[in-house]
Amino acid sequence: MKLPARRAAETAILTSGCTKRLGQLSRRGLRALEYHAMSPEPAEAVHESSNPAAAEVDAKVVASAPANLRSQLRVVLVEPQHPGNIGACARAMKNFGLRELALVAPQKFPHADASAMAANAGDVLDAAKVYPSLQEALADCSRVVASSARPRYISVPVSTPREWAQTAANRVAAGEGGRIALLFGRERTGLTNDELDYAHELIVIPTGGIDSSLNLAAAVQILAYEIGLAAGAAIPDRIVDDEPVDQATMERFYTHLERALIGTRFLDPEHPRFLMRRLRKLFGRTAPSANEMSILRGILTSIEDVLRGFGPRPK
């Protein structure tokens, strides 16, 4: 027989519009979710009074997440309807070291219910920023990740929370910067298709199929838990040894590239079609570093040397 806390953690109280499955969490992670979501005391009090050993392990999980990963994450709640959910989300965030909360047109905020549900996360709640539109909340974010089960007609990468968290941790471990927005929809209806258009990636929390909705704060906590867990085991999938060159350097490269391609007759200046535009997209995606750019420019120069018969180089 399931405990009431576990039943409550697995059953939708107020829906987030996202597909969920708590079964992918470890037993310790699910116990932590029950404690944090259902206990009336602050999370620290639960750990200290119930299981000091488990509290120490959970603290290590939180502490293992690099500060730069946590500082890059912004939790964005779109038009949250119940102020208690806002406070519970703030508490869920603080449990795993997330600090930045953005609220898009909340129905009731500030509110006493939000403060009550935040418990020991009043600082996260106090620092929350309110935005009139989603566009403004995402303006300075370089990556937007939406938690939703709404079908998309335009394909974007879809991951489980664990898969996405590991990928994000690996990106940051490799040196990738930029703010990341974690986007959550309304309790009743989730995110609209227009709002999902902002997302570069989708996160889906699979369920057992009986009830696909989950409390908004529980959805936030599952992602926060997986982020903290993944960050502690992050392995770079690439090494960033140099920063990408600036746009002025890229423009000089494109000029050099076009000149070399005309010289080899690969590019017909009378009928260029879309060759240079496609090459711009290609090299724009690779974001070459200064060292890589030196190599590319050297290759182009060697081609021009052969074309000139190793005569004087153009200025």
Using the coordinates above, name the CATH class of the largest domain.
Answer: Alpha Beta
Helix count, DSSP H or I runs of 4 or more residues = 15
Helix fraction? 40-55%
CATH T-level topology of the largest domain:
Alpha/beta knot
Query: CATH superfamily of the largest domain, called what?
Result: SPOUT methyltransferase, trefoil knot domain
Q: Spatial order of the strands in the main sheet?
A: 3-2-1-6-4-7-5
Distance between the termini: 81 Å
Strand content: 5-15%
H/E element sequence: HHHHHEHEHHEHEEHEHEHHHH
Shape: elongated
Radius of gyration, Cα only, in angstroms? 25 Å
Which segments are poorly predicted (pLDDT under 50) over 5 or more consecutive residues? 1-66
Architecture of the largest domain, according to CATH? 3-Layer(aba) Sandwich
Number of strands: 7
Mean pLDDT: 77
